[in-house]
Amino acid sequence: MKIKSLVTNAIVAALYVAVTAILAPISFGAIQFRVAEMFNHLIIFNRKYIFGIVSGVFISNLFFSTIVGYDLIFGVGHSLLSLLITSKLIKKVSNVWVKFFINTLIFTALSSLIALELYLAFSVPFWFGYLTVGIGELGIMAIGAPVMLYLDKKVHFNERIEG
């Protein structure tokens, strides 16, 4: 990994952790709105952001989760799997809004992993957990898409990560 890409991913991870830490009370649990999840849309601009996003999730879950072991497996797994699937599905898609839609759909659908985690850790009924976490994920990703597109016009995400 080139230095520029490594540093950019470190910044993404740090931003993910900072946003999650500041909003920790709403970032964890059966009803959650993890605002930092909007950074998942960085995959739309360049696949190289996977490392920074997943690192941010890992560090956030390691330091702020009350169920660290579960969150390191299920939370990190959810992010990594969703990002990998999205990166494969959007390769030949040219419309940025379709890419955002696909990414949002994948993350929301795979929230089932977090519902399973909540069931195993706290006996939260699976479908209740899936509904509440899924709604939170869908909301944050839907609101995050235009925010990330606006930021891209100012910051140019692809240029920031390419060496």
From TrEMBL:
Task: Provide the transmembrane region boundaries.
Answer: 6-28, 49-67, 102-122, 128-151
Task: Name the PANTHER family on file.
Answer: INTEGRAL MEMBRANE PROTEIN, INTEGRAL MEMBRANE PROTEIN-RELATED
Does the record bear Protein biosynthesis in its keywords? no
InterPro entries named in the record: QueT
Key words, A-Z: Membrane, Transmembrane, Transmembrane helix
Q: What is this protein called?
A: Uncharacterized membrane protein
Q: Does the keyword Calcium apply?
A: no
